[in-house]
């Protein structure tokens, strides 16, 4: 488990007074403002977040210290991180994406299939992007109980029963 979790990203300026368009990666999107000061990926900047109003694909928000449109535009694409301790523990059978990335993926016979590179959600459910030995490109494994019967975060592995021919 990591000490920080990416909870959102700045999509650009909103207005002329330093407000930003904020995209939340949280299960409850408005919760992004409740996790204390958020930091940039490199940890050099910290922002208190105040949500103003919902906008297309996110929220209009104020970030402490950002007072001009130019400063807000300069933050476009910046990912925001919360301290892991500020987040609620996941429910049984739920996982933070950050905890899954990097885990080994083994089939039910123990053969290494690869490692989780990323998690994608295109609307029909999560997909684990797996890359490993012998694969020319990454494989998208459905993150369902049928295809992934065991997730062992403490052990650093996932046991997969992938659909026939996927790997």
Instruction: Extract low-pLDDT stretches.
Output: none
Total tally of structural domains:
2
The end-to-end span amounts to: 27 Å
CATH superfamily of the largest domain: RimM
Largest sheet: 7 strands, antiparallel
Please write the string of helix (H) and strand (E) elements: EEEEEEHEHEEEEEE
Number of strands: 13
Q: Beta-sheet strand percentage?
A: 35-45%
Overall CATH class of the largest domain: Mainly Beta
Name the shape in a single word: elongated
Output the strand order for the largest sheet.
4-3-7-1-2-6-5
Structural class: mainly beta
What is the CATH topology of the largest domain? Elongation Factor Tu (Ef-tu), domain 3
* Number of H- or I-type helical stretches: 2
Task: Explain what this protein looks like in three dimensions.
This protein is mainly β. The protein has 2 helices and 13 strands, in the order ββββββαβαββββββ. The mean pLDDT is 92.
Short description:
This protein has 167 residues and is mainly β.
Descriptive terms for the model:
6% helix, 2 domains, elongated, Elongation Factor Tu (Ef-tu), domain 3, 2 helices, six-stranded mixed beta sheet, 167 residues, SH3 type barrels, 41% strand, single chain
What topology does this entry show?
Blueprint: E1 4-13, E2 20-24, E3 38-40, E4 46-47, E5 49-55, E6 58-63, H1 69-74, E7 79-83, H2 97-100, E8 104-107, E9 112-121, E10 126-131, E11 139-142, E12 150-152, E13 157-160
Parallel strand pairs: 8-13
Antiparallel strand pairs: 1-2, 1-7, 2-6, 3-4, 3-7, 5-6, 8-9, 9-10, 10-11, 12-13
């Amino acid at each position: 488990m990591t000490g920080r979790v990416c909870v959102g990203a700045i999509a650009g300026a909103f207005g002329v007074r330093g407000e930003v368009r904020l995209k939340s990666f949280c299960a409850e999107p408005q919760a992004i403002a409740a996790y204390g000061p958020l930091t940039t990926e490199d940890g050099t900047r910290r922002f208190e977040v105040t949500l103003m109003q919902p906008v297309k694909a996110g929220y209009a928000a104020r970030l402490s210290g950002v007072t001009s449109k130019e400063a807000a535009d300069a933050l476009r694409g910046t990912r925001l991180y919360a301290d892991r301790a500020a987040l609620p523990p996941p429910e049984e059978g739920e996982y933070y994406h950050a905890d899954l990335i990097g885990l080994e993926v083994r089939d039910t016979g123990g053969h290494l299939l690869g490692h989780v590179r990323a998690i994608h959600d295109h609307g029909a459910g999560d997909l684990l992007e797996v890359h490993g030995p012998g694969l020319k490109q990454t494989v998208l494994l459905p993150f369902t109980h049928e295809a992934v019967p065991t997730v062992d975060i403490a052990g650093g592995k996932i046991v997969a029963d992938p659909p026939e021919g996927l790997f």
